[in-house]
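User: ok so my PI wants both of these folded by tonight, can you help

Assistant: No problem, let's get them done. Here's the first:
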Amino acid sequence: MGMNDFAPVLVLARDVSVHEAVQASALALDVSVDTLHDTEEMHQRWRAARLRLVAPDMAARAASLDTRTATYVVGRDPEALVSASAELGCPALMLPHASAELANLLAGAAGGPVSQAWTIAVTGAVGGIGASTLAVGLGQEAVRRGARAAVVELVPGGGGLDLLVGKETHEGVRWSDLARARGEIGGLEALLPSVDGLLLLGLDRNDPAFPDPQAAHAVLTALRREVDVVVIDDRSGFDLRAEAQLLVVGADVRSVAAARMRAAAAASPPSGLVVRSGPGRRLSTDAISNALGVPLAGALSEDRALPRLAELGEPPLRGPARKFRRDVAAIWKEAFHG
């Protein structure tokens, strides 16, 4: 057997859970994987593999091999991963949180497309501040710019995403169908409801099951492979690994105090601040940014057209909401770097 006959991905693992996790991702992506449990063929197979994945229990055996390129330690135990990563001098992938990175590496090793989806999380410091509307607006802006985009609702007790865009009676998959999802998922783009080309994944008001962290990561990993931009309306407390984390805060003392507590408790610190002005909200945007220690990503001024559009079930960038469209475009340029 020549080197070209070997699978492009080599897994060194005795840990069954690591083997099964990698195999599940590989099967979903139609990528061939070989798993070795001993050292008899290791040296020859190692040179032939495009991607090498080493479980911590095999790190000592791999220490004599070249681990400088295309080698990752994979597992579920943080302490074991850190130790093995230091021993081999290669990066670590902790499962299930690194499922997206693992899928991208597997696809790349097989010569397939690697996901380039950009993820942005939008969190409101308090309820009713307009975070959901901004999330949908950013999703619509992405579609307007020619991107494939999805908006995902991860707000406990929410259930307003479909209602916000007038899709509450439309068929399609909601979180009640995916709340216990595991492993690799495919074909979500064809299953989710959409409006004007924007995919929507919201809570079901008749069955408001909320996903656990593993389900959220599995679904977001799948979406990142299928679209270009994922916008999350987020108050989950999960580590979502978003490239941008926007915190929406009202220009008033109460909202700023709530924003400080939410930022301190967040799994990832906010990367940008969006300040909502309007009646009773007159604090300076710069003063709020300085007080919270978060750079300003933009501002949302009062737009009286938005409540009317919401009552009609019309998406926020439609119709007469000119101020909102202008503000969303400015926030997009700041958060997505143009």
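One down. Here's the second:
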Amino acid sequence: QITTANTNIQSTDRKYFLYRAEGQDLTAAGFGQAGTRYMTLSFWHKHTKTGIHSVAVNNGARNRSYPMEYTQTTTNTWEKAELTFPVDTTGTWVTDNTVGMWLFFGAAFGSNYAGTANQWGSGQKYGTANQVYNYDSTSNSMQFTGIQLELGSVATEFDHRSYAEELALCHRYYEKVLAGPSS
């Protein structure tokens, strides 16, 4: 939900939702290696504003980007997007537990962050110049669910996990520190 309207976006402004994927989770995709491979991003979206919206993939260093477009055809209605893109064969893509990929869902951004749709390029891009401007009214909202990024050029059904399985996967980020006796 937009809480503060901004009707005058500057070239360096950027507003987005993001997801960070660890490099080790992307090694099977073969980023930075020769060969033709694809990944597919699928998700459900519900926007107040109809028209073209953007999402972009950036490498961890944010010096390689691939902007894509999807369309909200009916206001405040859940619609599914399926976007297939080629794996980047250049650039630096980490394979450890640091950020290997940034996934940006654009809400509004200035011209400095608009790239060419469906084309790998250099620099930090969050979408395309066709992006609907979502920050012009406090009546606007954007919602996403069922986001899935997978190898190949076909979107499969969303992989639902049980609460217990999801909690177990999150435990690797959890550390409990107990206070010892004071000296």
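Residues 44 and 145 are 5 Å apart (CA to CA). The mean pLDDT is 92. Good luck tonight!
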